[in-house]
Amino acid sequence: MPNELHERNRASWNAATERHLTHRRDLPARLRTGAPILFAEELELLGDLAGRRLAHLQCNDGADTLALARLGARATGVDISDVAIAAARAHSVASGIAASFERADVLDWSAAATARGVSFDVVFASYGALPWIADLDAWMRAAAAVLAPGGRLVVVEFHPQLYVFEEGWRIERSYFGAPGGNVWQEGVEDYVGYTGGGAGEAAAAARGWVNPHPCVEFQWTIGEVIGGALAAGLALERFAEHPHCNGWQPFPDMRGDEQRRFHPPAGREQPLMFSLAARKPG
Questions:
Q1: Tens digit of pLDDT for each residue in 39-84?
Q2: Domain named Methyltransferase: which ranges (predicted)?
Q3: How far apart are CA 217 and CA 19, in angstroms?
Q4: CA distance 222 to 240
Q5: Quick check: 1 pLDDT over 60?
């Protein structure tokens, strides 16, 4: 059954993805030439992917899914956005990298995949996936359900601490989130357009772009993330916090580096991402 809040976000993501794609026309060429797409944190946790069955939950436009397939994974990407999945399929054709893509709410997809007896060696999610899920425990159960015995869940995600701030590093909301999530009338942002753009006109235009569809975002604490994985029957193998944002510049005063990481100003150091690996008992 469709989740009402997820469906609201689907409309916002469709509009945002259309906007994001205008900044990413070079993606198929980057995939073909082996340009860096993935980051060190996920590559270290994922390890050797050759021949591994991998499900990438909330895969967006398929860039990371195809980069994982380029490393040898038998990859399936799942996303709720119609626009994102259409783009992912087009990127697969244009890059010459094979992967499967399915348009679905990940909770519905997991139930259907489990009913068909489909399973994966790795379930992966990263960078802004969990805040769009209305029920984190259900998401963890869905991930665990499609893992084969001995399979691993790998999550690299922005830290919930980051979401308490607004520009200027002002604390504006609770770390523990709001019942029913936070409703943003401006919808999903054009974060692709403003990341790395500094204070230029293009970055300012991207920050000023308003999505015609509102969205609902959910704040999950580190305790809820780890607790959800354990409650789903997974055994925690690794957990780490990281003092930078990979590929996203949430605030203009963050500085980028040659590894496509963005760091807070001096004196604002804090956990901005976390990474987790958990295994389904064999």
A1: 999 999 999 999 999 999 999 999 999 999 999 999 999 999 999 9
A2: 58-151
A3: 19
A4: 11
A5: no
Chain centre distance of CA 159: 12
- Using CA atoms, how far apart are residues 189 and 207, in angstroms rounded to an integer? 7
Task: Kindly provide the residue ranges of all beta strands, DSSP E only, lying in the chain, ordered along the sequence.
Answer: 53-57, 74-79, 100-103, 120-126, 147-158, 165-166, 170-171, 182-184, 215-217, 235-242, 245-246, 255-256, 261-263, 273-279
Question: pLDDT band at residue 237, thresholds of 50, 70 and 90?
Answer: very high
The Cβ of residue 180 has, within 10 Å, a number of other Cβ atoms equal to: 10
Range of the domain at 113: 4-279
Question: Which residues are 75's β-sheet partners?
Answer: 54
CATH number (domain holding residue 195): 3.40.50.150
Select from 126, 184, 171, 193 the least CA-distant residue to 270: 171
- 86 class by beta-carbon count within 10 Å (0-12 exposed, 13-18 middle, 19+ buried): middle
Structure tokens at 150: 């001995």
Residue pair 139/230 in contact by the 8 Å Cβ criterion? no
Average pLDDT over residues 194-199: 75
pLDDT tens digits, residue range 51-63?
A: 999 999 999 999 9
- Residue 122 tokens read as 């790795």
C-alpha atoms less than 13 angstroms from C-alpha of 11 in its C-beta half-sphere:
14
Report the chain's terminal Cα–Cα distance, integer Å.
Answer: 31
- Angle between helical axes of 4-21 and 82-95 (0-180°, round to 10): 40
Count structural domains, the chain: 1
- Please indicate, yes or no, whether the overall pTM of this predicted structure exceeds 0.85: yes
The pair phi, psi for residue 103, each rounded to 5°, is: -90, 110
